[in-house]
Design goal:
With 86 residues, the protein is mainly α. It has helices spanning 16-27, 31-56, 61-82. The protein has a domain at 33-82. The protein contains three helices and no strands. The termini are far apart. It is a multi-pass membrane protein.
Length: 86
Amino acid sequence: MVMATGDAPAETDVPEFVKSLQDAWDKVDDKYAVGSLVVASVIALWGSTGLISAIDRLPLIPGVLELIGIGYTGWFAYKNLVFKPE
């Protein structure tokens, strides 16, 4: 068996962000519910990115959605920015 000699292992400094995250996690009463919400959020994010990429692959839909976005931006600017209601 080989053993290292010398100094004890150096302690790493934990960043302040990690410490505050650990403190916040320790204050949580229902860790199971928070963990479930995190997992559900990750699954929802993954599913929504899949849905958006599937819509983006359709031949006509991205162009139509772009036109709708440009039209809505123009309407919003005309209605709220150009002629400000008094």
